[in-house]
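ugh finaly. both done.
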Amino acid sequence: MQKLKANSDRTQILNSSLIGVEFEFYSNISLEETKDSLSKVLGKKIRIEEKAHSDFVPTVDEFKLEPDMSGGKGLVELVTGATPYRNARIIIIKVLNWIKENGYTNDRASIHLNLSFDSKFLQDTLMVSKMNVLKFILEFDEEQVYRLFPNRKDSTYAKSIKWIMPREESYFYDETHTSVNNFKFADTKYYGINFEKAQKNYLEFRYIGGKDYEKRQDDILYLAERFIMQIWKSCNNPRFSQENKLELKKILNKNQPLINMLKDYKNLNKHWPKINILVDLQESSQIIRLHWPRIKDKVLKLISDGSMEAGIINYDSDYSSLQVKDGVFKTAFLIEDVELISCKIMGNLENCILYDCELDGAQVKHCSLYQGSRVKESKVESCFTHGSVTLTNCYVAGRDTMFKGKMIGGIFREGFKSDDARFEDTEIVVSKKIKI
């Protein structure tokens, strides 16, 4: 069998690629009927999983259908196995047509493309896992996605990959010595491209989606082809071009306010006038400068990953913890390991403690919610929920969930609940009483 070469033509490259697809959508019929109908349309075996991100790995012959409450009650996800390019195109067309006839999508639904190459056509079977991720980021045409799907530009689940920072704030960029080791860049699943998947020799593209994406067949197929070709180009030409270096300089210039903030905390309020920093609730410059080296990276994450727009950040030196009061986070890609008081948040939270907060359209994992926090249209997983907290149209999951609050609508998928927990029009699937 003939192996692909770096200069192979477009048709050869595409025909050697594999596409796995994750379709998020709402169905107008039951889950069982959805499975049977899609199975008939696709000519594939489809199994129903009880919860999202199940352990079953789809194959080219057997797909899975599972609930995905990241988009609220009723959202389901069809996950295909890695399928040869030409066949995958047909699957995409058929599923999009099925959704148009039997379901719908909204702003919280998306379609993820998992792209790789068939190893039997490759000279280096681990090509994608070895790719120069920084080079890929620099030459990836992200604007092509936003031109076709402009509403995805500020999605909390698809942060721009055009975010690069020096590993050391004292670093001075010299384009003649560009090295991947000098920079920090996209490294979590919440970016438009999930580079964590490169370890498994493929990339997950999360950009595409939004209301009525099922009506965008030509755009989706066009982008799938472009993504494949861009992966191939980066993998087979790892050296930084002059255009790459100019793009890097452009991104670093854009992030200069963050770099300046790391050097001197005074620049925080200069560039973000609605954000103030305290240490032990004190405004003393001397005290803040003393502790700044310990907290500057955490503050950086609040702004870059949390998209914090306003609020007070306090560092509690006794407990080495960061607290935010009156924070505004409209598109939080990820907030983690922070104590949040009276904040308004839309986005992703992990390992946080919340008091009197308002959450809307959030994914909350391993958090504790207290003091009348209000959560709407969100996924709350493996969390402790105090009796004063109200969840509206939410999806509660996680075997280690501890729930004492009130739910209006939504689904209580699994977890422990107290005798005092209140439910109104909530679907309770599996629950256990908390033993006191």
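ok and the 2nd:
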Amino acid sequence: MSELRWHPLLGEWVITATHRQNRTFFPPADYCPLCATKKGGFPTEIPAPDYDIVVFENKFPSLQTPAPEPAIEGTEFEPVGLAEGACEVVCFSPEHNSSLAEQPVKRILNLIRVWTDRFQDLDSRPNVKSIFIFENKGREIGVTLAHPHGQIYAYPFIPPRIATEVDQARKHFAKTGGNLLLDIAASEIKDGRRIVAETESFVVFIPFFARYPYELFIIAKERGKTALTDFTAAEQLDLAIVLKKVLVAFDNLFGFSLPYILAMHQRPSDGEDYTPLYQFHIEFYPPLRTKDKLKYLAGSEAGAGAYINDTLAEEKALELRKLYEAVEL
């Protein structure tokens, strides 16, 4: 069962998906559903002896088409909606004990092309209003399948974080005529202290307003790049190289594979033109504040929505900049 329930205090939808309680939970490596199916072995989600990149529908989707009927009937005060949309799994390595950081630039480039293809397809569906591409990495994030993979959610509404960004960007555009994300990037470039890297097409930095010690932004520099589908072949390659170096730098930070959330923010899919005011960007949220200490979302963060950062963005950016520059491809 899955449905949407309206949260009147926050003005946003909550997805209820009870069938996900039964989803796969830390299976042994020889029974991994994301590995290729071995001859005579346990049948997995990927019925092939090997693969490069695979995309398939999530077996335990929060959103699906057609959507099931809600479990209860809504009221005017407690609206209920169909959990319509799509949830896809993206496996980018057949190697069970690998990671995105360990993939060659060529495979990361292919992954960007796959992401672009999936965005284009989902963007054309009338019931989809926003497409969210992401990767949860590490047990610290809550990952229950160790095999390297990411996910794609196609929502029937614009989720709160994207809606807030768009609202702030729209206000900024009305007031200044500028693109808020590009103006943030320009301010970071001018200051310089929080810059991790800058290429022809992208700027990488820990933002002035970072909520996590190693929160990282990658922003497309040219105005009008609102989604993956706006990139040229050269920009795709540039992004692949940037991602590779960022991920390797993360792993070299403490000497082990760093857990994180990779969140790709793109324009909504509601038919409006976001070209002048919004900008494609990727946000990383690593949950560690030191080698052996987690940044927990506790009372202030989870209860009040007010983040507390234990570090200075300028110092953390310097750490990452040195590690990024040391990466050899």
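summary for the 2nd one i guess: Helices lie at 105-123, 160-176, 180-191, 233-254, 299-304, 313-326.
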